[in-house]
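#random but structural
TW: two for the price of one
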Amino acid sequence: MSKIAIVTDSTAALPASAINGYSIFVIPLQLIWGDTIYRDGVDIKPEEFYAKLERSEIVPTTSQPSPAAFHELYSRLLQEGHEILSIHISSKLSGTVDSALQAKDMLPGAPIEVVDSEATSMAMGFQVLHVARAIRNGASLKEAKEIAENAKQKAGVYFVVSTLEYLHRGGRIGGAAAFLGTVLNLKPVLALQNGRVEAVERVRTMSKAMNRMLDLVEHDLAKANPFELCVVHCNAPDVAGILRERVSDRFGISAAERILFTDVSPVIGTHAGPGTVGLSYFKGSV
């Protein structure tokens, strides 16, 4: 029986502990800073990225992996006897899916399937882990792709940004444009819906915004059992830690054992901006 490898991208920011034991391969997006190109999460880590962002006068930009980079990885995995399921950041946020499809076309007849997660960060990461578990339990490539397509409806994320400037500057603002010009003391609660950033509502303080995120996630998880949760942040570990404790209290679960906690990748941090905190969820097991 052929082995199945999952290829995802660096914006998932999957904790290393979560992918141990799975055949998951991560292709990095690119961070372009002046004349220097960094591989997301490889050449530059979140801590280094935010320190550099704070003192830099140059605004970084981002780019998807090239079709050639996908072709190289796909070719190696195929030579090792793998079939490939490639799950990536929403095509409405990045051209990564298009690069993956171009690489697949360069390998006609190869057992490669490409899925648009319609998400990013751990909303995508949970999808990847869910499918990886199914593969470990014996799912075929065709079955794994179907599971991946269905998993999109089970995952979600709400987040609060300190400013809409970064989303606006990077062109990823989507429906959150409705909140441009929001007074400084109002915090916009945003969501990824159908692959794009959408406005949910404006809340007066970060504390109230975190509670509102909890309300929204609790509503989305109604009758879901089991479920998975992950607190994500952009260089805001203290605020994210408070959110994690509130999640633990709200859902009556151990923060240490049941709630993942991770910084987002530098590429996502470029668009969300420092100070962003969010809560990703998945209806099911991973």
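TW: number two ↓
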Amino acid sequence: MLAKIIYILGIVLAVWCVLDIFKTSKYGIIGKILISVLVLAFSWVGFAVYYFLLRGKI
């Protein structure tokens, strides 16, 4: 049960990151798609990297 909650939370956070990327990113559409695919592919790690390292820079 806890594993499902963590899994769903990871998906929600990854989708939130993708929406944030498309709203605020300075990159073109290809860059946005590439970053989004990477965040979705690596759910928790992608979220952490985006939120802590890339969010303020892109």
